[in-house]
C-alpha cells in the first residue's frame, strides 16, 4: 500500500428530513448565495420553492445561474463568475447532479482570479482559494458532492477536461434519496453505470496490496448490481435510491483509491465520446468498459479480473483463471445490457472513420500522451479499443 | 435506511514517510503541546525522539503526561487537565493506541471546564468546546483516531464507561503501519478482534435496508480474517499491518452505522469484564461475541447470521438457514481460537459466582437498564450469555 492522505471534511446530511438545516449551514459561510442549477427539474419536484422559502425566512439573498446541461459548459461558469464578481457573492449553492456541482466548483475557484475560468481547467492557472460551496444532490452518479474534482466542456475548443482543487471541496452536501425517485429509468441506468465505472477505475490495478480497498470496491459494485435494476423498475423504492446514492459518494471520495496507483483509463476514453456526441457519460462508460477489460486481459491481469468475477458476480471457481476472467467480463457486459445500455458505439451514432481522430485526441488531451492505468495504453491501443467497441 | 449525518473532518496521513508534516499541522492550532503517551514503547521504537526533535526544530514547546495504561484511568486525565490549565497549553498530541487517544480526548474537553473530568463521562456536564487534538497511532484496534468516542475507567467507582463529544474529534491523525510492527502477537490478535467486534456491532441489525453498509462491513471482516493471522506470524509484513490499520479506522468512523440503528451489545458486556479483571478489551470481546450470537439466534435473526457466514466465511449455501447460521458462529469462534484467544471466561480467571453481579452492573451502567441491540437484552439475558461464555 502506498502512502496517502485522506481528507473528506464535507458534512453530509443524508435522508428525507434534513433540509431545514440548510440556512444554518449556509450562514456559517455567507449570506449572499449564487444558486446554480440545471433545467426545470428542481422546480418540478418542488425543491426550488422549498429552498427559496428557506432563503426568504432566513434573510439569505440569492442570485441564479440556471440551465446547466449534462457535460456542463464553460459559458455557464463564465456567467456565474460574472455575477459573483458583480454582486460580491460569498457562497455557492449547487442544486442538481454532477454537472451542476462541477459548474459550481469552477465558479467557486475562478471567481477570485482575473484570468478566464478555462485557464484553471487547462492548468494555466492554479487556484489559490475558492468561495465556499454547498450542494443539494438530486442524482446518484458522479460523486462530485464529496470530492475536489470537476469536468467541464469547452465547445469552442472541442475539449472535455477534468480538473481538481482542494478549494473546490464542498463544505456540506444534502443528500435526499427521494429527489432521485424522479430520475427516469434511462438516467438511473446511466448513473448506476457511472458509479460502477468510478469503482472499477479504482479497483482494476495490480499488486498494490490494497486488499481492504478492493473489498470495499466490490461492496459498492454489488450494491449497484443489486439496486440498479430495482430502482429502474420501481422508481419510488427508497431503499434502492438510498443505497445507490450512498454508493455514488463512496465510489469516488478517496476511499477506494487510497494507497493505490489508479490512473483512470475508461474515463479519458469516454470523454472523447461525450465531447463529440453529447451522449450520457455513464452510457459511454458502460459501452467501453467491457471492451477495455477484454483488451486488457493477459496473463498479468487475468487473476484480478477473475477475482472481480468471483467476488462481484459470484462466478464459481473451477475453470482456468483466463476462462473465469472471460466469464466475468461477459457477466459485466450482460449486466449493462440488462440495464438497457447499448452494446456498441455504432448504436449511439458513431462512425468508424472518426475513431482514429478520437483516439488521437484522447491521448493528446493528457499531460503525457498515454494512459498509464491497469494496462499501459497509447493512441493505437485506444484506437483498437474504440474499434472493438464499434 | 434511516436519516443520518456523516462527518469525519480528521485529516489522515497514512503511510511510512509523513511525520515531517507534523509540525505544520500542529502549528495550525497552537504552539504549546501536551504530549500524551503510554509506557515506554514509543521511546523504544524511536518515535518519541523523532517527535521531540521535530518540536525543537520548529519551536514547539511541550509538556508530558505519560504512563497511560490499557483501560485508561481518570487519574491520568486529571493530571493532564492540571498541566493544561497551569501551562496554558493549546494543543493535545496523543501518541499511542486507543487508550492514549481516549485519555487525550477527555483532557481536551475537560480542560475548559471547572468541574471534574469524570462529570463529562457520567453526563453531568456536557462539553461545549475542546482543545484541538492530533494523534499518532501506534496500534490498530480502537479506531479512536477518527471518531468522537472515548472510554475511561474510574477505579474508585469500579466503572468503565464510554462517552462522546463532537469536540473530541481529532484534527489530524498520522497512521504509520510500521509502528504497529512492534505490536506483539497477543496484542495483534486482540486488536484484530477489537476491529472485528466494532464491525459486527454495526453489522448485526435487522431490516434496516443498509445493504451497502453491510457489504462494507463484510469487506472489513474479510480483511481482518485474511491479515490478522499474517500479521501475527510475520510481524513485519507491511501489507498486513497497513490493511489492519486502515480497517480499524473504517470499522468505527461512522460509515458502517450510517443509516442504521446499532445499539452495541457486546461492548457493554465486555466493559464489565475489563473493568473487573483488566483483561485486554479485544480478548474479552472475542470471547463473548460467539456466545452472544448463539444466544441471539432465532427465526428472526438466522438469516442475517447465515448471510454473515456466506459473505464473510464463504460458507456454502445448502442447508437450512438455521444450520448455516450455526456454522457461521462456529467459524467465527474457530477463527478467534486460531488467533490464540481463550474460549471461555473461566480461562481468564473469572469465577461463576461473580457473573450475576457483572450482569447487574452491565445494565445498570446504562441510561436505561437494557441493551436494545440485535436482540433486546435485559439483566437476565446478559447473565445467561455470561454463563454460556463461562
TrEMBL record, chains A, B:
Domain Fe-containing alcohol dehydrogenase-like C-terminal, chain residue ranges per copy: 188-389
Keywords: Oxidoreductase
GO cellular component: cytosol
SUPFAM superfamilies: Dehydroquinate synthase-like
Cited CDD domains: BDH
Keyword set includes Transcription: no
GO molecular function annotations of the record: alcohol dehydrogenase (NADP+) activity; butanol dehydrogenase (NAD+) activity; metal ion binding; methylglyoxal reductase (NADPH) (acetol producing) activity
Family matches, as InterPro entries: ADH_Fe/GldA (IPR001670), ADH_Fe_C (IPR056798), ADH_Fe_CS (IPR018211), BDH-like (IPR044731)
Its EC number(s): 1.1.1.-
One Pfam family in the UniProt entry: Fe-ADH
Presence of the UniProt keyword Oxidoreductase in the record: yes
Domain Alcohol dehydrogenase iron-type/glycerol dehydrogenase GldA: 9-177
Name of the protein in its database record: Iron-containing alcohol dehydrogenase
Source organism per UniProt: Citroniella saccharovorans
Amino acid at each position: 500500500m502506498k502512502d496517502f492522505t485522506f481528507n473528506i471534511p464535507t458534512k453530509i446530511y443524508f435522508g428525507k428530513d434534513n433540509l431545514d438545516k440548510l440556512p444554518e449551514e449556509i450562514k456559517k459561510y455567507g449570506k449572499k448565495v449564487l444558486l446554480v442549477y440545471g433545467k426545470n427539474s428542481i422546480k418540478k419536484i418542488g425543491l426550488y420553492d422549498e429552498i427559496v422559502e428557506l432563503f426568504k425566512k432566513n434573510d439569505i439573498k440569492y442570485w441564479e445561474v440556471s440551465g446547466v446541461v449534462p457535460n456542463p459548459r464553460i459559458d455557464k461558469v463564465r456567467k456565474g463568475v460574472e455575477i459573483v464578481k458583480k454582486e460580491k457573492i460569498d457562497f455557492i449553492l449547487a442544486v442538481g447532479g454532477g454537472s451542476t456541482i462541477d459548474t459550481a466548483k469552477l465558479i467557486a475557484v475562478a471567481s477570485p482570479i482575473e484570468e478566464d475560468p478555462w485557464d484553471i481547467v487547462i492548468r494555466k492557472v492554479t487556484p489559490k482559494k475558492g468561495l465556499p460551496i454547498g450542494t443539494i444532490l438530486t442524482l446518484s452518479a458522479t460523486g462530485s458532492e464529496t470530492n475536489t474534482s470537476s469536468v467541464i466542456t469547452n465547445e469552442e475548443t472541442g475539449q472535455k477536461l477534468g480538473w481538481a482543487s482542494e478549494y473546490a471541496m464542498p463544505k456540506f452536501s444534502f443528500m435526499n434519496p427521494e429527489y432521485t425517485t424522479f430520475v427516469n429509468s434511462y438516467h438511473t441506468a446511466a448513473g448506476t453505470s457511472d458509479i460502477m465505472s468510478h469503482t472499477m477505475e479504482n479497483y482494476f490495478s495490480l499488486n498494490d496490496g490494497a486488499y481492504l480497498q478492493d473489498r470495499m470496491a466490490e461492496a459498492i459494485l454489488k450494491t449497484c448490481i443489486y439496486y440498479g435494476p430495482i430502482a429502474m423498475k420501481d422508481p419510488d423504492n427508497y431503499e434502492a435510491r438510498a443505497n445507490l446514492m450512498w454508493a455514488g459518494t463512496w465510489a469516488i471520495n478517496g476511499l477506494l483509491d487510497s494507497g493505490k496507483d489508479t490512473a483512470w483509463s475508461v474515463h479519458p476514453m469516454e470523454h472523447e465520446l461525450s465531447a463529440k456526441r453529447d451522449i450520457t457519460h455513464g452510457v459511454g462508460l458502460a459501452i467501453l468498459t467491457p471492451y477495455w477489460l477484454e483488451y486488457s486481459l493477459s496473463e498479468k491481469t487475468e487473476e484480478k479480473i477473475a477475482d472481480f468475477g468471483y467476488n462481484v458476480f459470484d462466478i464459481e471457481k473451477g475453470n482456468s483463471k483466463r476462462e473465469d476472467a472471460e466469464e466475468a467480463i461477459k457477466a459485466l457486459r450482460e449486466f449493462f445490457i440488462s440495464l438497457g445500455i447499448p452494446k456498441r458505439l455504432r448504436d449511439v451514432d458513431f462512425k468508424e472513420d472518426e475513431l482514429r481522430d478520437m483516439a488521437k485526441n484522447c491521448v493528446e488531451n493528457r499531460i503525457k500522451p498515454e494512459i498509464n492505468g491497469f494496462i499501459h495504453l497509447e493512441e493505437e491501443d485506444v484506437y483498437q479499443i474504440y474499434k472493438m467497441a464499434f
